[in-house]
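Please predict the structure of the following assembly.
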Amino acid sequence: MPNQTLDTKGMNCPLPILRAKKSLQKMTLGQVLAVEATDPGSAKDFASFCTQTGNSLLTASENGGVFFYEIRKN
Amino acid sequence: MTKPKSMVIIASQGTLDWAYPPLILATTAAALDYRVSMFYTFYGLQVLKKKLDLRLSPLGNPAMPMPISLPVLMQALPGMEAMATAMMRKKLLSKGVASIQTLRELALESDVRFIACQMTVDLFDMARDDLIDGIEYAGATSFFEAAEEATITLYT
């Protein structure tokens, strides 16, 4: 179960990443952030964001044009 | 020892479209834990105005998608700039793209350094009061100080 959920549906680059970063900053280590997005570019970007910031992308999936990510803060 | 991640961008453009790339890159870099400095020079200073009035012209830009294709001479007619600007604003909004104002605020919140070129401020008779608070004023020398340390340097 994620500790926090973030809805970025309808937002375009770079807003989903910026909002996710903001949410993660307020969370504690080990907590999980769930993100919903409709930006198709977010699939690559969230993976890349996690690699570059040292966080873990636990899940990445898509259902009917809505992307769903779970990020663990490390 | 590797350098800490930092990026320096020169932003020299002041149209509604070209105001975007440097701000998108700066806010994203900040989210990726880069230390970011932006040097706003020449027309770029329009992006730092308190009262934003960024516009767009179809003139001289054959790549700009227009609802109907217009001969170049017609693109120079009065009102065409306003039309192109309104069209772009509507499109940005409908596609969920952040406004320049929002990106600017997000950049300031994430401690992006904004440096306004003092020479341009003088050149265009601008007052510091016309520009947003929380920015620095400096010259080319300061760019090199930041660029020397930067792992990424861009000119836009």
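Helices of chain A lie at 15-25, 42-53. The first strand of chain A starts at residue 4 and ends at 8.
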